[in-house]
């Protein structure tokens, strides 16, 4: 099944379009060459955190871990009680999706936000196929949406509906980017949402990446498996052919001169440096990194067979 290539599908998303990606996922799995392949950066690896859920409370017995003592019941009854946990059969899968203004950009293919939405939908359908619970964290200048992990098809459809209804798609055109809060503030909230043992995928162009962002992600990676998907437009990687091109930030206008070889090299080096920072971070934290250009097929990116490469330390 080929994706819809009309102009509207490149700048926005629809519920039928995201639902149809389930068929694309199923079709790719049935292909002999891919039937044994797993999505790149698959989370069937060593889990972080306890990966346990509460079962019941009983009287404390010799040998019980004192960290599991239920102090409320103990205080109420006057006798020590401990919490019992059981291993989670369904692993929480959390998709964190960036809908900030820089994601609504592309010179080729589709908007980064559209590409990110397709990736999130595919991850959701894959979680459903694996029998895992799906949660989400959608963030933009307008609002943050937190979806608790839920199993079954209903959990996927809930995410798709929230993506389609996100107010970011209704922004006025050509409005300058003036973020209300920086990326690291959003990640503080993400850490509060992600349960220990979850598999967290953060889909973004990672603008505003800095040491504070790294600190929050390091704390997140201590208790969760982490995967970053870097969405970018080819123009962000390298300048077009020699010439002068009109540009605007929604307020001011100017000309971009790509004839200057020194400027072209500096421009491309900035992208390379940004990518190197992401790669080194993921290697150090044993996280996965996938690249997805606006011209790539999302399924290929998730399988690590697109133009972007997998730079993760864990597979």
Query: What is the mean pLDDT?
Result: 84
Number of strands: 10
Total separate domains:
2
Structural class: alpha/beta
Model description:
The two termini are about 25 Å apart. Mean pLDDT is about 85; it is low at about 1-5, about 30-40, about 40-50 and about 310-315. Helix content is about 35%, strand content about 20%. It has a 6-stranded mixed beta sheet with strand order 5-4-3-6-7-10, with helices on both faces. It has 2 domains: about 5-45 and about 90-300, Rossmann fold, CATH 3.40.50; about 50-85, no CATH class. It is built from 10 helices and 10 strands. By secondary structure, the chain is of the alpha/beta class. The chain is elongated and about 80 Å long. InterPro entries: DUF58. This is DUF58 domain-containing protein. It comes from Desulfuromonas acetoxidans (strain DSM 684 / 11070).
């Amino acid at each position: 099944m080929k994706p819809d290539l009309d102009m509207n599908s490149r700048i926005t998303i629809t519920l039928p379009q995201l639902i149809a990606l389930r068929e694309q996922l199923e079709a790719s799995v049935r292909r002999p060459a891919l039937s044994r392949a797993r999505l790149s950066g698959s989370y069937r690896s060593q889990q972080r955190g306890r990966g346990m859920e509460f079962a019941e409370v009983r009287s404390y017995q010799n040998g019980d871990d004192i960290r599991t003592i239920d102090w409320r019941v103990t205080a109420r009854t006057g006798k020590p009680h401990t919490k019992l946990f059981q291993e989670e059969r369904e692993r929480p899968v959390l998709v964190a999706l960036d809908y900030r203004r820089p994601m609504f950009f592309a010179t080729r293919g589709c908007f980064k936000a559209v590409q990110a939405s397709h990736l999130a939908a595919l991850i959701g359908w894959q979680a459903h196929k694996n029998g895992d619970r799906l949660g989400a964290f959608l963030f933009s200048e307008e609002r943050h949406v937190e979806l608790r992990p839920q199993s079954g098809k209903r959990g996927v459809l809930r995410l798709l509906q929230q993506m389609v209804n996100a107010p970011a798609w209704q922004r006025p055109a050509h409005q300058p980017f003036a973020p209300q809060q920086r990326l690291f503030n959003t990640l503080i909230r993400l850490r509060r949402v992600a349960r220990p043992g979850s598999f967290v995928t953060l889909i973004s162009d990672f603008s505003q990446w800095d040491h504070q962002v790294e600190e929050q992600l390091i704390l997140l990676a201590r208790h969760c498996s982490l995967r970053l998907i870097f969405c970018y437009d080819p123009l962000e990687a390298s300048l077009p052919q020699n010439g002068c091109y009109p540009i605007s930030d929604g307020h001011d206008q100017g000309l971009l001169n790509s004839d200057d070889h020194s400027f072209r090299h500096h421009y491309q080096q900035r992208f390379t440096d940004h990518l190197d920072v992401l790669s080194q971070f993921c290697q150090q934290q044993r996280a996965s990194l996938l690249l997805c250009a606006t011209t790539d097929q999302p399924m290929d990116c998730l399988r690590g067979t697109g133009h972007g490469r997998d730079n993760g330390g864990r597979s």
